Amino acid sequence: MRSQARHAIILAGAAVVGLAVIAFAQGQPPAAVQPEPHGVFGALLNYLHKQPFILLFLVVAAGFALGEVKVKGVGMGSTAATLLLALVVSFWAFHSYKIQYALPEFTSTVFFNLFIFAIGMKVGPQFLGGIHREGKHLILLALLVPLLSSALVYASRFVTTLAPGLLAGILSGANTATPGFGAAQAALASGAAKLSPEHAKLATDNLTTSYAFLYCISMVAFTVMMSFLPRMFGRDAVADGKAMEKELSGEDSAPLPGTADAFIRGYMPLDLRVFRVENPALEGRTVADLDHAHPRVAVERVYHDGKVYNPPPDLVLHRGDEVAMLGPVSLLLAGGPHIGPEVDDSKLRNVKFDTVEFIVQNKEVVGKTLGELAQHMGQGIYLNAIFRAGDQLPVSRDRTVNKGDVLRITGSARRVAGLKQVLGPAVKPSLSTDIITLGLGLAAGALLGAITIPLFGIQFSLGSAVGLLVVSIGLSILRTHNPAFGGPFPESARQLLEDLGLNVFIAILGLNAGPGVQHAIEQGLLGPTLIIGSIAAFVPPLVGWVVGQYVFKMNTAVLMGAIAGARCNSAGMRAAQEASKSIVPAIGYPVTFAISNLLLTLICYLFALMG
């Protein structure tokens, strides 16, 4: 058995045993009108009903563990596994023990919004390049998928008789289009459908049941399908994702300021070497003399008379002293023998390196070339890259520095610290997150998404997902121009928001869905709803994929995000990221998501009017 499978089984077993012990330790509650569920599992599920916090995060943890399990190298991923597990637990509890989980919808909204904001904060710099490259294709796919899905649902009226409300419910649920469901509800509530009170009530019930049932089924199945789709068509999503990243950023480009990888240095042509002074010509010479003899190599520390110095320029060197020198490896190898033998075990090796981004503000620096700056302050520092208005510029001695340029510099902590007064504000890697920016960004995105525009008698809005994407993408693009804008937003914190946000949202969705699934089965809606909904949910994305791959020749990772957006499926987009091991699917998602949501909202409203 694979180690991942063993870990998942051990985790699930430990959780069940532990919660069973806790449940029985609580004792029997007082008698109630509704009899207590019987048996070990009944008591366990009932205890979790009373402790929704434990239930929620137990499902999230187990979903992540199950998502790691792979069969022949293929797994569901954490998102699909979490939703499937939550659905199973919810349906089991309601069907067998009449236990109905009802976790607050507000909680799911909070975590979903955190997920969407985190996606935008990373994809922003690549988004504009992706739109420029694939914009026309994204728009066409955003029209093709929802229109084809709508046509298939409408055509089902000529094959079978659908109860009132099912037309809009199937379309909105199959496409996980919550705004479409809301528009259909509004149409039925307004009386515009011209139904009798009895039929209006039946239509509303059917709309809600079919939407909830298909939403969950479609979410799970589509999320799993996104993991397999590239392989079905012979494409390598991982390779294509990496290729697109290189194409958008450039093969040898440095990460832009304010992005997740800004302070990941990678290969650096610098090293710290320690040499013992044995050359008689250096006896009685100063550190300044040694610096002058090796202009691109800096003396960082000196071990002299039993003490370690951050050496002043006038410190006199003697034979037997040790000097720690920082510079390009080639110069250290060439200059070292002129000093003496290299020392492997030395007290001088613990020199801390910093990579810092400086935003040029000092008037005395503006207008000078990099070569001129290097003469005055280049000793012991290395210029990684220079950026202007969010674009990387080639480094050359003749490159003129403008106000607002960002210089990414690596060097010893003491030398880098001295540059702040010379260049301007410094931005260093940080483990803290600017909560003010996070809070204001979330509020602004939700506000943008809540703005309503009358359209054909419907109050249409972008929705919080699109609003938050727009704000977070804009914020991340601004940070490439000025990395100090918005304060620190480390990648570890952003990744936590992304992973936890979506999976908590998905878990709540699944845990609340049990009664809806049961109701669909009891009302006999399961068969026609499932058949029509499955056709409407999966045929259009497959057609869209064929068009995107063979007609538009789109990059696989971008196409995955575009199909997920056209299906209004955020979990599918996350599954695409997991499958491609890349952020690239998020490039194709926002445009198709916004257009598809608009179309489905209008069409669901019209379907509801048909009764």
Automatic annotation (TrEMBL):
List locations, semicolon-separated: Cell membrane
Q: What is its main location?
A: membrane
Per UniProt, residues of the RCK C-terminal domain are: 257-342, 343-425
The entry lists its GO molecular-function terms as: monoatomic cation transmembrane transporter activity
Topology relative to the lipid bilayer, per the entry, is: Multi-pass membrane protein
**What sections of the protein cross the membrane?**
51-67, 74-94, 106-125, 137-156, 211-229, 435-456, 462-479, 500-518, 530-552, 583-608
- Mind listing the GO biological process terms from this record? potassium ion transport
Record's keyword terms, sorted: Cell membrane, Membrane, Transmembrane, Transmembrane helix, Transport
- Gene Ontology cellular component terms for the protein in this record: plasma membrane
Q: Which domain of life is it from?
A: Bacteria
Annotated InterPro entries: AAE_transporter, RCK_C, RCK_C_sf, YidE_YbjL
SUPFAM superfamilies per the record? Answer: TrkA C-terminal domain-like (SSF116726)
Q: Which PANTHER family match?
A: K(+)_H(+) ANTIPORTER SUBUNIT KHTT, PTHR30445:SF9
**Of which family is this protein a member?**
Belongs to the AAE transporter (TC 2.A.81) family.
Q: Under which name does UniProt file this protein?
A: Transporter
